[in-house]
Hints:
- By secondary structure, this protein is mainly α.
- It has helices at 2-15, 22-32, 37-47, 54-59, 79-85.
- Helix 1 packs across helix 3 and helix 2 (22-32) runs antiparallel to helix 3.
- It has two domains: 1-50, no CATH class; 52-89, no CATH class.
- It is globular and about 40 Å long.
- The structure holds zinc ion.
- Residues 69, 71-72, 75, 81, 86, 88-89 line the site of zinc ion.
- Zinc ion (ZN) binds next to loops.
Amino acid sequence: MGKVYTQLGLLIIRLQGTHDGGENRVFEILWKTRVPPKVQVLGWRLFLDKLPTKTKLLARGTYLQHSLCEFCLECEETIEHLFISCKES
Ligand SMILES: [Zn+2]
């Protein structure tokens, strides 16, 4: 997943400071950035806070053995943890 994370990082850097422009501006930047469509979709879902992390799945009642991050197995799997604070991802 390293390459996807790098491409997603590029998107996030381009999106920083665009929140004032609203969703339309973020959408425009996402679709103009030269990354594979799957990375654009991942960026859009990240922006909308729609990624199905284990923490969210458990909150919705999905059965899981645990909600820990699969990379480090130390912290709850949240978007913030996966994309920012996980030392293994
Ligand atoms: Zn982790």
